[in-house]
Amino acid sequence: RTEGEVGGGATLPGLAARILASLDSVMRTSQPDVVVVQGDTSSALLGALSAFYWKVPVAHVEAGLRTGRRYNPFPEEMHRRLITALATLHFSPTSLNAWNVLGEMAPAAAAAAVL
C-alpha cells in the first residue's frame, strides 16, 4: 500500500469525499436533532463534519484519547483532535481523557466532558 491508500486503490481524500457526499443526503432526509459519533475513524470525523455543516450538535463517544503524536496512529490521532473541535458533547472513557478534551476546548464553549 502507498501512503494515503486505504485499500483497493482508494485514497483517504477519495474515501472522505464519497462519505461526506453520502452523509449530506442522509442529513437532508433525516434532519436529526443530534449526531452521535464513536471513536476516531474517518467515518466518525466525516459524520461530525457533516453535522457541523448542517448546524446539528455532535456527541462524541470515546472523546479525549490522545497519543500526543499527530501522525501516530495515522490518521486517527488527527481525527480525534478534529472531532473534539466539532463536537458539542464529549463522552470520555476516563478522567484523563476528559481533561484532554477540556484542555483543547475554547473558553465558554457550550460543551461538556462526561465520564
List keywords for this structure.
115 residues; alpha/beta; 4-stranded parallel beta sheet; two-stranded antiparallel ribbon; 4 helices; 6 strands
Overall description:
β1 (5-7) and β2 (10-11) form a beta hairpin. The model has no long low-confidence stretch (mean pLDDT 88). This protein is flat. It starts with a strand and ends with a strand. The chain contains four helices and six strands, in the order ββαβαβαβαβ. By secondary structure, the chain is α/β, with parallel strands linked by helices. α1 (12-30) packs across α2 (42-53) and α2 (42-53) runs parallel beside α3. The chain has helices at 12-30, 42-53, 76-86, 95-104, and strands at 5-7, 10-11, 35-38, 58-61, 89-91, 112-114. The chain has a four-stranded parallel beta sheet, covered by helices on one side. The longest helix has 19 residues, at 12-30.
Summarize the structure.
The chain has 115 residues and is of the alpha/beta class. Helix content is 45%, strand content 17%. The strands form 2 sheets. The chain has a 4-stranded parallel sheet, covered by helices on one side. Strands 1-2 form a two-stranded antiparallel sheet.
